Amino acid sequence: MKTEYDVIVVGAGPVGSTAARYAAQHGARVLMIEDHASIGSPVGCTGLLSKRALEECGVRPAENFVLNKVRGALVHSMDGACLPIDGKETKAYVVSRKIFDRTLASMALEAGADISMNTQAVGLENKGDSQLLSVIRNGVNLQLETKVVIGADGVRSGIARMAGLGQVRKILPGIQIEATYRSADPDFVELFVGSQAPGFFGWVVPVNEEIARIGLAIDCENSECALDYLERLLKNNTHVASRYGGGKLDFVIGGIPIGPLSKTYAKGVLIAGDAAGQIKPTSGGGIYTGAVCAKIAGEVAAAAALENDTSADRLAEYDRRWRTKLGRELAIGMKIHEFLGGLEDKEMNDLLASMNKPSMLETITAYGDMDHPSILIKKMLNPANSRHLLGVFRAFAKAVL
Ligand SMILES: Cc1cc2nc3c(=O)[nH]c(=O)nc-3n(C[C@H](O)[C@H](O)[C@H](O)COP(=O)(O)OP(=O)(O)OC[C@H]3O[C@@H](n4cnc5c(N)ncnc54)[C@H](O)[C@@H]3O)c2cc1C
């Protein structure tokens, strides 16, 4: 079926909605399709968003989706020590992803995009200057013809696979519950590193003084393994166990795709967000990076469609532009992830202890940036801090920069 759309965006998550909005704002006729019957559900996220992430998405921290504000982190190592990182001001928001996602989808619709729910993309074929997208809408098979398809279809992107761009190679299983939890201070998230969450970390993100999102991701093949670690964190970590009220109010399971695809474009196709592995390998946060890339994807897709040049060469502009903005940070993030994941508990304890000094904590407060960790690492290597640096920290810096 020939459609009137220049661009079809597959997936109405934050990245799909942002890409659709930008494509519409740049003059394209846009359709966004979503396989679920509801936007923002089921939720597969902690909903911790930096101030910059909200800015990048073009939304203000409105009361209808912001549940809490946080200004720092308490990092717990296996020896029971705690590294307090105080940003001194609001650094991030804890949001309702359901309402946040709906806000972004509404903005796409206001910009002129159309949306089709209950519509699943199941096939993609390149035909001359257009793309034939096979979908199942409300149980009915249809073929939609368009000039550019943006695959914003999340961690196990079918569009990337069908376009011959492969899949993100490393997907960390993540698991989380929302539960009653007496936070020591709801202005701070708590992080748990070392063998309690091997290869990544655990977290407690307070929604308020009595409820928190408690989860972890690990560097392991299967999510059952992650569930075992979460149960152990809840039961055996005395700090967590003494605050956790038992039971679950919500349960989230998902994958965190780290390490971007080597190519995020093909003739008539762009891939963005989790589908492209555009996620911070240090934190697993994908909204900020996804939004940066979605905006470029929307803009390039619209321009290429309106010029009637949707060749791979034309669409390569997207790949070049997002890598210029984020490529180095994601590559450094991957090295940090690999280095930290390889540390023994004793080495991780020592690393955190070496940072737990007044001058280092001041540096962290001044330069810590959850979206750009490389800025802090460079500052920490300042000679003024070097007397505190242990061998493991030097090795860390050497491996990462
Ligand atoms: C446990 C966990 C915690 C996380 N916590 C955070 C956090 O605190 N902060 C943060 O920034 N990031 C976090 N993330 C990552 C964040 O959730 C993702 O980076 C973000 O959702 C990516 O957005 P997206 O639009 O690319 O993909 P998604 O949000 O996954 O959206 C993809 C959409 O595409 C739809 N879709 C898929 N296939 C099809 C198809 N064939 N046809 C039609 N529609 C389709 C899906 O239904 C979905 O709605 C977390 C991830 C996990 C797993």
Poorly predicted ranges: none
Q: What molecules are bound to this protein?
A: flavin-adenine dinucleotide
Evaluate the radius of gyration: 22 Å
Look up the CATH topology of the largest domain: FAD/NAD(P)-binding domain
Overall body shape: globular
Share in β-strands: 25-35%
Domain count: 3
- The CATH class of the largest domain is Alpha Beta
Mean pLDDT: 92
State the CATH superfamily name of the largest domain.
FAD/NAD(P)-binding domain
Distance between the termini: 51 Å
CATH architecture of the largest domain: 3-Layer(bba) Sandwich
Strand order of the largest sheet: 6-5-14-15-16-13-17
Number of helices: 13
The helix content is 25-40%
Total beta-strand segments: 19
The structural class is: alpha/beta
Largest sheet: 7 strands, mixed
Describe this structure as you would to a colleague:
With 401 residues, the protein is α/β, with parallel strands linked by helices. It folds into three domains: 7-44 and 98-169 and 259-327, FAD/NAD(P)-binding domain; 69-92 and 170-257, D-Amino Acid Oxidase, Chain A, domain 2; 339-400, no CATH class. It has helices at 14-25, 51-57, 97-110, 158-162, 223-236, 238-241, 287-307, 312-341, 345-355, 358-367, 373-380, 383-386, 391-400; strands at 7-10, 30-33, 48-50, 66-70, 72-76, 82-86, 92-95, 114-116, 119-127, 130-137, 140-146, 148-151, 170-180, 188-192, 201-206, 211-217, 250-258, 265-266, 269-271. Strands 6-5-14-15-16-13-17 form a seven-stranded mixed β-sheet, with helices on both faces. A six-stranded mixed β-sheet has the order 8-2-1-12-19-18. The chain has a three-stranded antiparallel β-sheet with strand order 3-7-4. The longest helix has 30 residues, at 312-341. The protein is globular, with a radius of gyration of 22 Å. The N and C termini lie far apart (51 Å). The mean pLDDT is 92. Bound molecules: flavin-adenine dinucleotide (FAD).
